[in-house]
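Hi P.,

Sorry for the delay on this. The queue was packed all week, but I finally got your sequence through. Input first:
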Amino acid sequence: MLTLSSIHKRFGPTVALDGVDLDLRKGEVHALIGENGAGKSTLMNVIAGSLNLDKGKMEIDGHPYVPSNPLDARLSGIALIHQELSLCPHLTVAENILMGIEPSHMGWLDRDRLIQRTNDVLQTFHHADIRPDKRVNDLSVAAQQIVEISRAIAARARIILMDEPTSSLQRDDVTQLFALIRKLSAEGISVVYISHFLEEVRQIADRFTVLRDGRSVACGNIADTTDDELIAKMVGRSQQTLFPKRVQSNNPLEEILDVQNLACPPLLKSATFQLRRGEILGIAGLMGSGRTPLLRTIFGLERPESGTIAVNKKALRTGRNTPAMRLIEGLGYLSEDRKGEGLTLGLSVADNTTVTRFSRCSRFGWLDLSKQRQQTEQLVNALKIKMHNVKQPVRALSGGNQQKVIVARLLHQDADILLLDEPTRGIDIGSKAQVYQTIAECASENKAVLMVSSYLPELFGMCDRLAVMSRGRLSDARPIDQWTPETVLQAAIGGESM
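Then the structure:
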């Protein structure tokens, strides 16, 4: 159905695609895998008409395909679901889903049909918060992801390009999405599926193509290839282990953060826990259960209705509940929404890395650009962030490299307490190993880590203790060896007494 031959694309001196070949068959799910910066999203944007290729050839059903813009690609039957949401937040769900294909009557928008067609598409997911007349800006990140997927479904595309479509979805939504993909595949619709979760790829894909450094380096049937072989093809070397080995201390750990009966309605109803130096405390739970509001409230982004927060046994005053004060008190925060909250996309990598602690690279109140560049380059090299130079705007980096810039900022800040909300979202396997190693090193340096994640292997591989959030209430934290994936899920859906 779709054939790509020797696709090249560069941005100035940066070579993004350096000879990519791919063939997509009718009705198949084709996995496109590779490290961050390998060129996956660039290739999707070329196919979807957002970028013009420099050299190469594309064909659909044996006929030349040269889209001049995204609308041209859409009319050719191609729809792209972006990794970074591309919605209009001020418009309603219905207006976003049917944008460009709105039903009309004599030149006027037919709102009744607009609502009806939107409801038909939304029936796939049964998400209570998503209504056709609701503004997208009022939805959670997970709900916005569903709206993005629904827009591609509504377009009745023959080829759907999915760039990390499950990065913000909870388990039930992922199950429904996979059922939908299988249904589309059975109807002859082809899907190109990008994911860093190899278990997802195995569950849904028929064949795969691996990109590395802008080139297609391997392809084949997913069932005939092991995970170790896929990882070796992605990173160019074998991956010995994903999670670092950690030495447990026999000495009692000093308590650094004490949270008692913290509540921030409507999502956060009650949370009590203690966090100790040198440990990683994980929080599991379904999206919308209150995990993110807990971290945001601790960091001063939300005002609590009740409860207390103490750092180093000193209660924090309600009037000082601001992020600026939390930075001074030694807290660092990584948001799940890197594009909306985590980064200032128009500023450079250096500015984003050092912004929470300019004092480390300034002199007499003036920013020392040479020292800032030097400190940033050290962190960039340590985390292997792919970029042209540290003056490059963050928006020019791939999503995974943007995420690593946020991790670099936490390291530069040198906070004592790290609040991490989905720290490896959108990061490839090789980069995940680097981030896990960085988190483990922070714990070994007597820092305290509170980590929220939807990925259970990550929590079991990294955490010393684990608590589960369900319907706004946090369970008691227990040693990780006292949990199993089954008991975590049971607690998350309310099957266990909280």
